[in-house]
Fold this sequence. Notes:
Helix content: 40-55%
Structural class: alpha/beta
Shape: globular
Largest sheet: 5 strands, parallel
Amino acid sequence: MSASSGAPVLVVGFDDQAASLAALRTAAxxxxxxxxxxxxxxxxxxxxxxxxxxxDVGTWDTYKHKALEHLRVQVEQTLAAHxxxxxxxxxxGNPAKLLVRIADEEQALMIVVGTHRHRSLAxxxxxxxxxxxxxxxxxxxxxxxxxAGR
Length: 150
């Protein structure tokens, strides 16, 4: 569905983590209550690439395409019953910077992102998208934890 109605905008970050799905559901509920359009954003980064750096280019591209298609389908399924307007953006780059840029371009009311209660070593090395958004955003940021994962 396309979000271009001139309504207020909420930007939500999405990846394959449970907290991200909780953020998407929360953002959809808020968008409905506020009469806002929803912009779902995925920053394509190293997390979308195969783990083995020696993988041939064809396999690499196939893996990346399947991973990105899986995310898009998750968004479509989650928002299937959502009556409001929404769009899905997937672009290369740092996810936090991408969320902030789209929020600025759309003059968003808010950015909604999932946050994890426990940080693994891998997450600490990659950096936290929610922390990066909170530091750089020019709009309010709502952090949503996955309470089901407790």
